[in-house]
Every structure is written in structure tokens, then in C-alpha cells.
Amino acid sequence: MFKKEDKPNNEKEITFKEIVEPKHFNPAPNFEKKDKKTIIGEHISIEGNIRGEENMLIEGTMKGNIEMGKHNFALGSLGRFEGEIQAQNVSISGKMVGNIKTQGKVEITKEADFSGEVKAKSISIGDGAYFKGTIELDRESHREKVLPEKPSTVSILQVASEPTTQVDKTGSKAG
Q1: How far apart are CA 31 and CA 54, in angstroms?
Q2: Which letter does DSSP use for residue 116 in this model?
Q3: Which pTM was predicted?
Q4: pLDDT in tens, 74-88
Q5: Which of the ends of the chain has fewer CB neighbours closer than 10 A, N or C?
């Protein structure tokens, strides 16, 4: 009979942690890493809404809304998404139809196919990406940098109070 201890020597035991936490996960390469992350694989389809408090990567298909609060969202190159995304930062590499609202940055990579509206502090669109939509950037963050300083009243008065020399029609200086 078989004993419970008997295991073939060539089989490696795989832990749950190794399956759930891939070594090379990077939901949005240019964004800060957070401790927790959720991956929706390419063979998963979701219809509905997702609300979470960790980073998320979708390589599958989803129709609905995503609310990630102060965490990042990435749509991988195999991902398909239809709906609205609210997250700290968003990276799109797959096909998306919908709206993005962020407090941070939106990255539309060169592999992306995006149609919709973007509201963010900043956006980058990779060369070769398909983008059809509207962009609204946070006005306050850019306004401080764009508006030139107004000249002060003092400097205008100083220029106006300098003595001037006038020349009359005959070419002599008048005082």
C-alpha cells in the first residue's frame, strides 16, 4: 500500500503564494508600486462594477465601472475594457471605450486603442497609439506655471518718472 509520506522525488511542491503573486508583475511601469495588486487574467470576463483598495491589472475583458480610490489601474495589451475608470494613475495598453478620471497621470501606450474622455492632471500618449476623444487637464496645476508675473506698479512709475529729452523740428534739444 501507499504511505502518506511517499512522494515522487521529481515533483516540486508549488505554494498558493507563488501562483497568486507572479514575480514579474508591473501594473503600470511608470507609477509608484503599492504593496497589494489584483490581476484579471486574459481568459477572464467580467460584467459589473469593481471597487477596490489596491492596484489592478486587467488582461481579460470587462464591461462596467472601476473605482480604485488612491490606487493605480492598468489595462494590459491583451485587455479589453468598456466603462469608466476612477483611479490615482491609469495606464492603457489594450482596447478601451469609456472614460477615465484620475487625480494623477494617464498613460496611453503605443499599443493602446482608446476612445472616450480623459480627465487628469497629466497625460502621455505614445507614438502610434490610437486615440479618439477629449482631454481635460486639471487647470490649477498648470495655471501657476503658465501665467506670467504681472509687472508691479512701482516699476512702471519709475520708468515714467525718468527725465526725457525732446528734440524740436530744428534739431535742437529742448530741456
Answers
A1: 13
A2: E
A3: 0.62
A4: 999 999 999 999 999
A5: N
